[in-house]
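TL;DR need structure tokens for one chain.
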Amino acid sequence: MTREADVVKSLVEMADTLVDDYDVVDLLTGLSDRCVNLLGVSAAGVMLASPAGGLGLVASSSEAMRLLELFELQAQEGPCLDAFRTGEPVGQENLQAGAGRWPSFSAAALQAGFRSALALPLRLRQVTLGALNLLNVTHDPMADADIIVARAFADLAALSIIQHQAAAEAQRVNEQLSVALTSRVVIEQAKGVISERSGIDLAEAFSRLRTYARNHNLRLTDVAQASIDGTLDPQAWASPGRAGPS
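>> reply
TL;DR here they are.
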């Protein structure tokens, strides 16, 4: 399959998820993964605005990216925040520790192995819902064609968040963003539970959690909550090929 066909297939698959009861966190995690697989970036993450106006982390393509985005929120500086605040794309910038417009973020990103960053707002009309963060371990500029695809992904993600009840758009946006941010808290707790019980790292815990949800056609948040409550079969997070929990 050509790269162009892969891009079209990804857009179709994302559009197919826009049903009445889709999982926002799973959708945006898939978006992050697609950016890494198709656009040549090293990591991707998505932040969404809460009803109160602040940003919260909802999805990331790796554990390193998750930790860096949490740092970005704590430091209150970085490409994702700028894209959200301005509602405009933040062009690719080579990172320099202690310099540039994000000195603290740049230092943390370089320590994590990333050397350049860009970000795109998630917008619907005049409303900015969040931002898509794209990081690379090289200084190589992102191709114009890849940026166009990334913008298409970001636009489709924004549409997916508020697709229902256009007449009550503001209320729906607040509900969807609140659910997404709350769901992420539950998922993070479940990752910790599975990591501790199975002796695996957080990234592997999330991978097994998500795989189980998809294989059993369950909502990721529901599986995470069952893990926390102790009602989920330990087989759910067992190592592939083993009969019980690791």
